[in-house]
Amino acid sequence: MTPTFGIMTHKNQTYDTPWKEIIEFFFPQFMAFFVPGSEEDIDWGKDIKFLDKEFQKLTKESVLGQRHTDKLVEITLKCRNHAQE
Asked: How many folded domains does the chain comprise?
């Protein structure tokens, strides 16, 4: 059997779904682990929007090839006054 890297099959999507749900549920911890320090810049009091439908619209219009990202998230950053730093 030849591996199909970069092509999402139904079997791959089935395994992918729980990971996406885990990322949503543990998003603050995900950011702290994978992008250390970013959690300090995010305004956690504002809504976090997971833009899966918007991302799907973008990918349908683009040429499909190997994809490394398939989760789109909108966050609000804290305002910082860099003049005082």
From this structure: 1
